Amino acid sequence: MKYISFILLATGFTNMLNAQITYPQTKKVSQKDNYFGTEISDPYRWLENDTASDTKAWVKAENKVTFDYLSKITYRDKIKNQLLELNNYPKFSSPIKVGEYYFFYKNNGLQNQSVIWYQKGINGTPEIFLDPNAYSNEGTVAISLAGFSKDKKHVVISISRAGSDWQEFKVMQVADKKELSDKLEWVKFSGAAWQGNGFYYSRYDSPVKGKEFSNQNKNHKIYYHTLGTLQSKDKLIYTDPKNPLRYFGASLTKDERFLFINISEGTYGTEILYKDLSLKQKDFKVLFKGFENDYGVIDNDKGMLLAITDRGAPNKKVIMVNPLKPEEANWETIVPEKEELLEGVGTGGNRMFLSYLKDATTRVFQYTYDGLQERDIILPGKGTASGFGGEKADEELFYTYTSFNYPPTIFSYNIGSGKSELFRKPELKFNPEDFESKQVFFTSKDSTKVPMFIVYKKGIVLDGKNPTLLYGYGGFNISLTPSFSPSRIAFMNNGGVYVMVNLRGGGEYGEDWHKAGMLNKKQNVFDDFIGAAEYLIKENYTSKDFLAIQGGSNGGLLVGACMTQRPYLFKVAFPAVGVLDMLRFHKFTVGWGWVVEYGSSDKKEDFDNLMTYSPLHNIKAVSYPATMVTTADHDDRVVPAHSFKFIAELQDKHTGTNPVLIRIETNAGHGAGKPISKAIDEIADIYAFMFYNMGLEWR
What does DSSP assign to residue 656? Predict the structure, then answer.
């Protein structure tokens, strides 16, 4: 067993606070693997078996140490109460028009899951369509709308339990909210694409009992389900046994003429097959060949297909394709590539709405299907706008705009006039204008200019003593854009500085920016994050004694890599649900889909590169920042074994006095669908752990 005692000198404390941690004894096994002549020990391999009794006992022991530690922080409950108060206000989604009804999500304030409401007409009386909170006392069941039938009479609802990626599909009638007998299981990464009296969906075969959340998922399949029949009667539409590690998804144009099979081998690069259902085409044909580029079909325009692609255009463009002559030489460019990234294209009112990113903030333009730009849609400021989707006959759309100091606000948009009007604005118990947000650019290690947002309460003093939380992701072509969080208000009210950095590997500046932070260039991402930390210290926002780093999933890898590469640069580290064992990530659930981003230890060149930064394999006998790893027992995206093995190794080798703990949530997953109560508990613990280890009091 390992013992540490540490002394915390807190501002305003009259006495020194002493604490002693005894970490659980984590057994080691003599597991060794040979990678191209290099022998790698994996002494905690047994922790990969998440359902084994010894793993469960270890989880219980680690959680006891962590929660005993957190319980001694005197202001922990104060933080939680402040978060509850700040989060307790009604929150709405933009309305979705479905025939004569409008659907929307609403949370009264502290409901664990948002409730699905609907009303007849925009001025109708709202009523509850479906309340996910009724499905679980702890609010651990999340429900979403997966797809409406073309006649708007039926909707598929997707049910997820305890944060798992596994979905269960059921069907409801819109008019009377009646739930039908249809029940589909073992659905994953799928919507419901309606056609006729049924819909297409994607699923896996039933998993091995006891390994539902860890075994590798293989052989994704597309089925067609006819309403009123058993799942066992569903018709298999597409599978590819020769390529068991691929994702398959079905989609249709809104007129249901064209059926597409969207294929990917990972998180980047697609192949699209199609059938023209009006011609009773028997077999699928190739529309876009994979997997070197991304493609997405926007709509059918008189038998021609509008699509978005980054083929020959890293920032993406809109093209028109004749499905009878889909070769690249026959493409017509409708909207050429611009200097900014084309993030996505929505349709409604027989128009296209092109959403661009300019320095990680949204710009939206209205176009005709012929590629004529009609107008620049004026947004409230530099933030994030989403929505801009509807039916061809619609004259009005809705969108949501938000920023760091601008809570999500819903606007109605008139397609004909281009005028936006306020539809719904949240009523807050604080003034967002008390807070300031600015964007800066710093120079990374290789002289690349990298942007980041810095948010704080007005009047802050740049004396190097501000508790600062630096957040990043940097991967999978995902863009981080401004968003609002009431929980950050409590943090900033206590002098906190929140920083979000747009690292390479993300999608903020197109595919070139993404590729500059993947595979053998992944170190650029870590260099950017470290560069952001050094900038904040140089500019006196904070110092290494008041700097915390945070990231989840691929961002958990980011934090794990940076804290092992530069352990003395940060005071506190929060790797959440992280990919931390870079040699074995592809052996669990859908981890194989990340090989296109990271590479695979099955290849010599990739193995050599992965070993340079794999957090688990780069822990040394040095002093590390105060660390609280967070994960969950039902995370079947990034299995908790990553976090288990990482903290076991860290607790064994850490030589300093900072606590290194793991917080393991039960009945929760990778993050999506997490109940508000669990989310607030976790955020309160993060802030408490951060301030306590910086020697700060919470006001």
Answer: S
Burial bucket for residue 72 (CB in 10 Å: 0-12, 13-18, 19+):
exposed
Whether 553 is catalytic is yes
Categorize the per-residue pLDDT at 589 as very low, low, confident or very high, splitting at 50, 70 and 90: confident
State the Cα torsion 310-315-318-319 to the nearest 10°.
-40
Distance of CA 295 to the CA centre of its chain: 21
Burial per residue of 75-84, b for 16 or more beta-carbon CB atoms within 10 angstroms, e otherwise:
bbebbbebbb
51-60, 537-546, 643-652 — which is least confidently predicted? 51-60
Residue 1: pLDDT over 80: no
Q: Which two tokens stand for residue 21?
A: 């941690």
Q: Where are the beta strands (DSSP E) in 123-197?
A: 127-130, 141-148, 154-161, 167-173, 179-187, 193-194
Question: Cα separation of 635 and 622, whole Å?
Answer: 30
Strand 304-309: give its sheet, edge to edge: 295-301, 304-309, 317-321, 332-335
The pLDDT value recorded for residue 176 is: 96
Q: Based on C-alpha coordinates, what's the Rg of the chain?
A: 25
List C-alpha distances in Å: 296 to 165, 309, 363, 508. 23, 7, 20, 18
Mean pLDDT of 331-337: 98
Range 383-387 contact pairs with CB under 8 angstroms and sequence separation of 24 or more: 383/481, 383/482, 384/481, 384/482, 384/483, 385/355, 386/94, 386/355, 386/362, 387/94, 387/346
Closest CA to 169 of 120, 95, 230: 230
pLDDT tens string 399-445? 999 999 999 999 999 999 999 999 999 998 788 889 999 999 999 99
Whether 469 contacts 497, CB under 8 Å: yes
Average pLDDT over residues 627-654: 91
**Confidence check: pLDDT of 512 > 60:** yes
Catalytic residue among 220, 586, 634, 670: 670
Give backbone dihedrals phi and psi of 636, rounded to 5 degrees, phi first.
-105, 20
Q: CB atoms < 10 A from the CB of 98, how many?
A: 17
Task: Quote the pLDDT of residue 38.
Answer: 98
Q: Taking a C-beta distance cutoff of 8 angstroms, is the pair 94, 398 a contact?
A: yes
- Tell me the average pLDDT of the chain: 93
- The overall longest dimension of the chain from CA atoms, in Å, is 82
Residue 279: strand, helix, or coil: helix
Q: Which residues share a beta bridge with 347? A: 352
pLDDT (0 to 100) of residue 674: 80
Write down the catalytic residue from 94, 355, 553, 614: 553
Asked if residues 571 and 625 have their Cβ atoms less than 8 Å apart, the reply is: yes
The pLDDT tens digits of the residues spanning 7-20 come to 233 333 322 332 57
Q: For residue 310, what pLDDT is reported? A: 97
Residue with tokens 């807050």: 428
> Which residues make beta-bridge pairs with 19?
6
Phi then psi for residue 332, to 5 deg, are: -115, 125
Active site residue 93: no
pLDDT per position as a tens digit, 661-693: 999 987 766 667 788 999 999 999 999 999 999
Cα–Cα distance between 156 and 198 in angstroms, integer?
10
